[in-house]
Every structure is written in structure tokens, then in C-alpha cells.
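Example (one chain per record):
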Amino acid sequence: MKKIGLVGGISWTSTLDYYKLINQGVNEQLGGLNGAECIVYSLNFSDIQKVGWTNAYDLIFEACKSLVLCKVDAIVLCANTAHLFADEIQSKIQVPIIHIGEATALEIKKEKLSKVGLLGTKFTMEMDFYRNKLKAYDIETIVPAGSDAIASIQDIVKNELGKGILRTESKEKFIGYANGLVKRGAEGIILGCTEIPMLVGQDDFNLPVFDTTRIHVDRITRFALGIDEPFVA
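Predicted structure:
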């Protein structure tokens, strides 16, 4: 069993899913009382919000360094947006980071899709770090048009899903944003924020939906069991 270091708390609600799903995945393979060997470094999400995601490098890097000192075999950033720093952090540590964007790209390629819609935080949708990872696999990424849509998604993720609050009207909004992307040619939808699958999922759509949390967890579990090498930044 390889030891996994989880940088969590971004937010704690999605970190719960990571911990649960990784342990379930290991147990499904090994049975009995087997679970994952892992260490969770749970950041205070309020500290991230105070400085803003674009200024949160030091907080996330220090968490990674602490996990390295615990002799983990791989590091997981339990948030899509945190991968803003994945390449830079990877260049400074020897422990591999299992990258959520690359794992997602490989799943999209399995479906032979070339254009997908992305729903995530404002930073994940507007900045290049996520889209560029998909572009490396010849996948075009589109996001909802207009600042109002972006702001609405960000507000729901931050002020509702990040607190474990699920609202029917918010679910309807997300379905509407996704359908708008389909009208613009999206062949699939990426749920590119670890909290979004709490609200919508494959059952809400007639085209492929890529739950990045579960995709990421699958790669993490396979690495922990020695089935796969990690996909690094």
C-alpha cells in the first residue's frame, strides 16, 4: 500500500468525499477491513478566502511540504482550483502530484470527445491552467458566457456548496448553464469543482458528465494499490 498525502479543507465538504471514496475504492479491491493509508492536511478555507486563490500559493505549498516530511508516496490537491499551483509545486518537490486535470483529460479521450463544457470556480473557468492541461490532449474547453453566469456559479460554490447547502433553485441554474454549453457545441460537461457533484451529476444530463472528484479518486486509488503510476503536473 502506498501512502497518499491529501491537501484538504478546500473545502472540508469535498475533502470528506475524497476520504470516503478513496477508502471505499481500496476496500472494494482488497476487501476485509482494508482501507487507504493516507494523511490529511486540512487547511482552514477561511485563510484561503482571506488572501484569495491567486495569493494562496504559500499556504498550499507549506501543506505539501508538511506531507512530504511525513514520507507520503504521492500528494493530492483536493480541489480543482488548487491545481493553479500544481506545476510550480511539482517543480519544487520530489513527491509526485496526482493531477486532476490530466486524469480528467484521459477520461475525456476515452469517450473520443474533442469539445467539452467546463463548470467550476471563477478561477478554474477563467484562467488557463485547467484548459491548457486539456488542450495538451487536443480537447477544446468552453465555459458559460457572460460575467453574470460566472459570478452566479462562484457564489453558489462558495456560499452554498462549500457549506454543505443544497438548493433546488441552484441545481436548476447549473443545469441551465450546462445546457447553454451544449447549445454551443459541448459534447460533454466537466464538473470541474469538487463540490459541484453534490448538486448535479450524470443523471441530470443526456451526454457524458465528467465528475472530476470521482475521476481523480479512481487514479489515486489505483496508484495507492500499485496499479497505476501517477499522472503528474
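Caption: The mean pLDDT is 90.
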